Amino acid sequence: MKIVLKKIIVFFTLVLYFSLTSCSGEVGNTKVNYEDFEYIPPVCEYRLINDNTAYELVSIEANYIGSFYVELTYNDPDNEYGTLPVTSIANNAFKDARGVFHIIILKNILTIGESAFDGWRGYQGIYFQISEEIKNTNKLYDFDPNWNLNSEAYVRWEAKPEDYGYTMDELMDYYNSYLENKDEFINKYLDELMKQRALLD
């Protein structure tokens, strides 16, 4: 069961990475109904920072279950600033977001606020594209000293696809198989989400 769940999580990370936008809420009509479970990619809240030149990720919807990556840019149609980079994660942004299996944070995130992952448990993972050395020595990066306070999540620096236990070729074969059998894969994934949700309740 653990192996199946791991493959399902890996598969959906690839789906998010290659075919969906992340958690901006601008996913192109992607909505899957399955019995009493409805999957809709997560909606996140953003705010303008740095004299309206970038965005900070403030929060993710509380009931989201799945895995995702923090997007590179965001475009708020309600303001005149257009598409801007996402460079920061706010204090407590993912507090108690226990339905998130893992999050991938790319090198565009320069700052992370205090207790951003407060309440995360050991089954959850935080995967960084940058190395811990770069985080500590490069002046561009300014993480709060307590960014990971009160979190039991696994943290991986310089994360690569192999860190999920598969080579890139294996992941791409799995993803291509998904493209050929979307309905079957989605049903398997949602089966696992239902079981995971039951554990979280």
Query: Radius of gyration from the CA trace?
Result: 17 Å
Helix and strand string, N-terminal first?
Answer: HEEEEEEEEEEHEHH
User: Which word captures the global form?
Assistant: globular
Biggest beta sheet summary:
5 strands, mixed
Annotation, overall tally of beta strands? 11
What is the number of helices?
Answer: 4
Structural class: alpha/beta
Query: Strand share of the residues?
Result: 15-25%
Mean pLDDT: 75
Alpha-carbon distance between the two ends: 20 Å
Low-confidence blocks of residues: 1-5, 14-21, 24-39
> Percent of residues in helical segments?
25-40%
Main attributes of the structure:
single chain; 201 residues; alpha/beta; 5-stranded mixed β-sheet; 4-stranded parallel β-sheet; 24% strand; disordered N terminus
3D architecture notes:
The chain has 201 residues and is α/β, with parallel strands linked by helices. It has 4 helices and 11 strands. Strands 3, 4, 6, 7 and 9 form a 5-stranded mixed beta sheet that branches. β3 and β4 (54-60) form a beta hairpin. α1 packs across α4. The model is unreliable at 1-5, 14-21 and 24-39 (pLDDT under 50).
